[in-house]
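Input chain follows. Return structure tokens only.
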Amino acid sequence: TSRHAKSSKQAAGGVLRPEDRPMPRFLWHIFKQEGAAGLFKGWAARCLKVAPACAIMISSYEIGKKMAGGINDQRGGEATT
């Protein structure tokens, strides 16, 4: 195993850090330490990042779909003439 993996999993004398636990246990740790508000920290920044990324992805898909449709139409027109 790598030095990083070994140090992250065995921090504090072999006890797993909260970040190394399975997701449900990690979320429970956050809830116990910071309450329900702790689970929603950073939601605004995450939304500001995800919304434009999603818009770019959907736009790229639609542009690609339109381009592919145009190519298919050209090929279909050539085959019939």
